[in-house]
Amino acid sequence: MSATVSPVPVAAHLRRRTAGSWLRGITIGVVTLVFALPLVWMFAAAFKTNVQVTDPSVGLWFSPTLENFRNIVEAGQILRSMGNSLLVGVVSTVLSAVIAVPAAWAVGRFGMHRTGSLILVARIVPAISLLVPWYYLFAQMGLVGSYTVLILSQMFVSVPLIMWIMISFFAGLPVELEEAARTDGLSAFGAFWRIALPLAAPGTATASLLAFVFSWNNFMFALIFADDRTQTVPVTLFNFISYASTDWGGLMAAATLITVPVVLAAVLGQKYLVAGLTSGATKG
Amino acid sequence: MSTTEVSPARPAAASGTGPAPARRPRTFAQANRRLKWAMLTPALLFVGLMIVFPLVYTIDLSLTDAFGAVNAGKGYVGLQNFTDALGDTRRFWPAAQRTLVFTLGAVILETVLGLALAMLMRKPFRGMRWVRTVLIIPLLTTPVAIGILWLLILDPTNGIANHLLAGIGLPRQEFLGSVSQSLPTLMLIDVWQWTPMMTLLLLAGLTTLPEEPEEAARVDGANAWQRFRHIVLPMLGPTLATALVLRAVDALKTFDILYATKGAGGGSDFEVETLNVYAYGLTFDYQEYGLAAAVLVLFTLFIIGVVVLLRRRGGRKTA
Fold first, then answer.
1. Interface predicted TM-score (ipTM)
2. Which of A57, A91, A194, B144 has the fewest CB neighbours in a 10 Å radius?
3. Which keywords are on file for this protein (chain B) (predicted)?
4. Chain B environment of A188 (Cβ under 8 Å)
5. Residue-wise pLDDT tens digits, B126-164
């Protein structure tokens, strides 16, 4: 087929494309740098002395020091907060997945889109309009400051998030496999448990990782519901500003400690995380 | 031993459904209905307890004069809180206006930039993986950390931003240090954080588009802009509409970065106090639970209104 096209226009077409792709490559490179540089600046500042941090002429070439990290770790709170964030994140994510994955399957397989749209409502409602009644309620029950409340409030974000991702994931799985399994004598639940769930494992992992990251990052719930003992990382970082606002090196070291797990997750699971974040949105 | 126990059980189970093929669809349907609800009930209960109940409670609270300690009594005052909020030109209306300005400005910029970047990245290229990794990092990073990072970068005297501006001969800016520049600055930070999300969403949408219409237009002599404007953009409509709604909803609810950089009340002159920050302050700084609940009801209606408007617009365009 391509033999019918004369060779001269093909060559011109190719040449134009190479020039165009150079320009495109450079543009993409520059834009990517613009998005990356602020975070590079943060990582660099974490390894600078306080004099260097506040001297903008010190760029990215300096002899790094671990002083900032030693200071914030010795101050005590940061490691405990990271432990708290890990605990709240893991427990709320696991509980949310247990609730949300079967529900997503039911919505996806039985086409219950009116029930499914409840999730959209959960996505729209401002978290703070739930926070007020929860606070009112939990304060009367004397639960404010407990891990229970932190985990429960986090599940408000995680359950709809995981359902949102998993509905479109299940919808993308071929229904024939489950039907075949049922013709072979498996119950409907068996088809879910033995066929759909294993196939959905990658999707569940993605959704859970995103739910964990959202929990790790959540500020407003923790600001209200955590006390000194149960404080999570965003609150610790926020408190740093108020009493150590001149310790830029320490602040950047703390911000870096908090960000490193997220960056690792992004580097290792880039493909899956992008798929998770964009699922649902592209299917309407 | 165990194998002899299992193997007869299987044919038995199979024959249990086997002998009555006519009844099978009905029992399956019944089983489905029961199973469906069994699978959904925990999630529905959770959503009900954690979302529907609080919303009803918020509406109830908005009709009372609840104030101060949470276990203090409260009396019903009718729509007093709503008239108070709607008559408040000092905090409520400016906050509503800022919410709208922030959302419109940030989301429009993010959509235009995100679409341009998605079009650039549409054809696969070497290093695509790394570019996508870089793009995903800002939107996974803790907003409080982002806020603090930008406080350092934009510091009026010691920040790198002013150093760079001076390098190209521009005057020093106050950024977050000034009342008039704070909101636009925070919009730009939002653009930095969320343009990548737009790009990723639109890129995912672009990859699902069929190539034939564009090829046909190319053969007919349409240039790149014409193909984009008349072929790609209309086909991308549904994705664009959904991405817009998602981003607008989140932009309307922005809290973390505003609070982390400017503190309670959105700064000394309330300069970045949006409805979200205002409602937060009313509740947890002033303990005006009744008034806060009324503001939240109005805020929620405001968001639902925006979503309905955007969806109807998007729907009409794509229909």
1. 0.88
2. A57
3. Membrane, Transmembrane, Transmembrane helix, Transport
4. 28, 31-32, 35
5. 888 899 999 999 989 999 999 999 999 998 888 899 989
